[in-house]
């Protein structure tokens, strides 16, 4: 995923899902999830130690005694199943199956069984796929043929030659052309491109047939995120084939979607910012608030996308607008450019909020009694062949938040 990622599903950009990172700002993949319980909006057990950016594990502070209220005991798995069933929409397909998949994901990821978290997952699934385990995409054959035509033109190959090659029988027994003409779902498209990639030489197509599909499943999860996640956290199900294939199953897509949405310590008091992060990348909402403060301190107009650095191949490159603006504050912050860059490199981690740069920047802005929120909405336009009107990360987050509020009202 993040590991974000709205991510293109295309031959060079066929289809974009409304989750996980934007194509507008350049960003690194979302960091792998920490192996600790996440911060929630309701009381949870004391978290385990969290590794710092250097890999050193900091000791967990002793919990402060609470005398004013008794924390609610954690729900049993049977109680959680009942609660989740109460929260799911009244009219939905295979309620028992979805209940099991969501609950299994929470259990495997060691997430707390709370109404807030159940509703966050349910609202995101509903927004991304309308409770379809293998989401259908209107006009998918046209999207794929257009992309193939663009790639053929790039390689100066007549489209008719490509279409003729695709008349050959594929591993399913049907021709590639027939499979493209009858495409309905993302999983079918992924399987098609997997076969095309395996048989590109046999088809004698001098095109780059590497599988370009980067998101999928009922929560539109980044394949890259899933591939990274299984290296940091054990996948709980028997794997049939590759991690990529698991993303396109209902069970696997739900598991990885819940992980990228909830399995990280977010510093928010409003769930809408988790939904924004789901779309724009982890900690994007926190980082946008930082960008707003920098813009006010410097008078510079910045792109409020949550990306503090510019990346190429996952490595910081060049100088981003935010980076240049912060460099202009170096003397006021009493920090060198090397120290500023050191802290900016933690922008995709929870630890960024504890850096010298983050604390000094907010302190500089607030020294005269002004205050500024620690989260703000990323301003990112969503672009995709299947999007026919202006949509933004803010639109996505608010749509999911509306579904979340409806879910919470069912308690």
UniProtKB/TrEMBL annotation:
Pfam families assigned to the protein according to its UniProt record, in alphabetical order: DUF1615
Highest taxon above the source species: Bacteria
Region Disordered: start-end pairs: 41-71
Signal peptide: 1-19
Keywords on record: Signal
Family matches, as PROSITE patterns: PROKAR_LIPOPROTEIN
Coiled coil regions in record: none
UniProt protein name: DUF1615 family protein
Organism encoding this protein: Deefgea chitinilytica
């Amino acid at each position: 995923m993040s590991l974000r990622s709205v991510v293109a599903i295309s031959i060079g950009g066929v289809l974009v899902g409304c989750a996980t990172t934007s194509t507008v700002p350049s960003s690194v993949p979302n960091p792998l999830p920490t192996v600790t319980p996440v911060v929630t909006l309701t009381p949870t057990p004391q978290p385990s130690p969290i590794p710092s950016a250097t890999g050193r594990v900091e000791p967990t502070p002793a919990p402060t005694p609470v005398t004013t209220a008794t924390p609610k005991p954690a729900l049993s798995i049977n109680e959680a199943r009942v609660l989740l069933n109460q929260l799911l929409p009244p009219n939905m397909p295979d309620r028992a199956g979805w209940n099991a998949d969501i609950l299994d994901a929470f259990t495997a990821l060691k997430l707390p069984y709370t109404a807030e978290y159940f509703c966050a997952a349910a609202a995101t699934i509903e927004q991304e796929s309308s409770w379809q385990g293998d989401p259908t995409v209107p006009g998918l054959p046209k999207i794929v043929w257009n992309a193939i035509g663009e790639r053929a033109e790039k390689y100066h190959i007549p489209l008719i030659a490509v279409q003729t090659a695709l008349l050959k029988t594929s591993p399913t027994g049907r021709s590639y052309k027939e499979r493209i003409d009858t495409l309905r779902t993302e999983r079918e498209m992924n399987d098609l491109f997997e076969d095309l990639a395996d048989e590109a030489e046999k088809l004698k197509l001098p095109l780059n047939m590497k599988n370009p599909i980067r998101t999928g499943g009922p929560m539109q999860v980044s394949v890259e995120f899933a591939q990274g996640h299984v290296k940091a956290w054990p996948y709980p199900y028997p794997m049939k084939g590759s991690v990529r294939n698991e993303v396109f199953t209902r069970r696997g897509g739900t598991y990885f979607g819940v992980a990228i949405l909830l399995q990280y310590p977010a510093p928010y008091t409003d769930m809408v910012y988790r939904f924004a992060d789901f779309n724009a990348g982890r900690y994007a909402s926190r980082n946008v608030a930082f960008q707003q403060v920098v813009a006010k301190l410097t008078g510079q107009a910045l792109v409020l996308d949550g990306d503090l650095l510019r990346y190429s191949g996952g490595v910081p490159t060049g100088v981003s607008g935010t980076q240049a603006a912060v460099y202009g504050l170096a003397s006021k912050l009493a920090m060198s450019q090397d120290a500023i860059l050191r802290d900016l490199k933690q922008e995709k981690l929870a630890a960024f909020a504890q850096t010298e740069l983050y604390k000094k920047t907010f302190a500089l802005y607030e020294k005269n009694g002004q205050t500024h929120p620690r989260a703000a909405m990323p301003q990112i336009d969503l672009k995709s062949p299947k999007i026919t009107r202006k949509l933004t990360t803010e639109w996505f987050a608010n749509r999911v938040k509306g579904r979340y509020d409806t879910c919470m009202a069912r308690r």
